[in-house]
Amino acid sequence: MLTERKKELIEKIPKAENHIHIEGSIPWELALRLAEKNKVSLPVHSIEEIDSWAHGLIGERGLDGFMICDRTLNSVCLHEEDYEAVVLALAEEDKRQNIVYQELHLDYPLNEERGIPLEVVMEGYRSAQRKARELYGVEIVYIAGLDRTLSGERCLSFVKSLRPYLDMVAGLGMDCEEKGHPCIKHLDSYQEAKRMGLFLTAHAGEDGGSDNIWDALRKLNVQRIDHGCRAAEDPELIRYLKERDILCAMCPVSNVYSGAAASFEAHPFLTLLRAGVPVSISSDDPPYTNSLTEELMTDAEKMNLTEEEIIRVVRNGFAYSIQGQGYLPAFDAWVREFQRKGAD
């Protein structure tokens, strides 16, 4: 059981989040409202039905099952105001959890395959980015996500299409089903993104091997690894990540849920953390898993994290972020006050 002090720490500490997907994080209540508004037929008609349907698919098919859920619920977004509404709903929830800085992966290909123009999606997200700060005091940073299952040519075209949006998009990532789709398939996209000045990250080692992580690091020259579970199986890779101070933005609850990790006890997060690899914790796709606060509570309890480890992991979310380092002085001051009160 968590102590009351650890619970208070997790609830009240200022937070950053490095790894959460917009399209996978549409609040289910909002998804149902948008489906009704836009006359989109869904196979589920209540939050309870969504929960049962999603658990069944993900339990049976893991990451592939999640992608079916993701694509299905994302189909409710058709208009600029829909995309704005999703991000603003996330920002409102951020405020409740004391999340002041959040990096959101936007997976436009999930919209492109439905014929939604890029400008509709991006202008909705642009408006939400501005309003999130004004209404909720939350800084939103966007990472454009490649669907690694698509062709290299199509992904490169997407990266080039981001040029008019470099004022709002700060990074390039890669996600979707990993098996059978090695990172190197999208080398041209990453080289183009680097020329455009984008921060580079990639999902690797989630349901694929450590070789995918090596390819992302050495061939794509990424500055961060998303998930990175299989890194813990490779001592040389652990040393590499530690020596080069490369963050693994991890999502333990999501990994256990999808089968990428057998259990919390077997999750590689602790191995990496205690080996000195920078790790942060994020919620990944909160309607399916937990909010960030709930994620931290669960991980701290299941993995028996110390108070110092909780603080270090949360601090890493700012320290290794794309542009959230400016929050560190206020974060460190908050921690000092929390520790001082505990010592009184």
Describe the protein.
This protein has 344 residues and is α/β, with parallel strands linked by helices. It has helices at 4-12, 28-38, 47-61, 63-74, 80-97, 109-112, 118-136, 152-161, 187-195, 210-218, 235-243, 252-258, 269-274, 292-302, 307-319, 328-343; strands spanning 15-21, 99-106, 139-147, 169-175, 199-204, 224-227, 247-250, 279-281. It has an eight-stranded parallel β-sheet. Strand 6, helix 11 (235-243) and strand 7 form a beta-alpha-beta unit. Helix 3 runs antiparallel to helix 4, helix 8 packs parallel to helix 9 and helix 15 packs antiparallel against helix 16. It is globular, with a radius of gyration of 19 Å.
Task: Give the helices and strands, then pairings.
Layout: H1 4-12, E1 15-21, H2 28-38, H3 47-61, H4 63-74, H5 80-97, E2 99-106, H6 109-112, H7 118-136, E3 139-147, H8 152-161, E4 169-175, H9 187-195, E5 199-204, H10 210-218, E6 224-227, H11 235-243, E7 247-250, H12 252-258, H13 269-274, E8 279-281, H14 292-302, H15 307-319, H16 328-343
Parallel strand pairs: 1-2, 2-3, 3-4, 4-5, 5-6, 6-7, 7-8
Helix pairs in contact: 1-14, 3-4, 5-7, 8-9, 15-16
**Overall mean pLDDT score?**
94
Strand content: 5-15%
- The shape, in one word, is globular
User: What multimeric state do the chains show?
Assistant: single chain
Tally the beta strands.
Answer: 8
Keyword list:
alpha/beta; eight-stranded parallel β-sheet; single chain
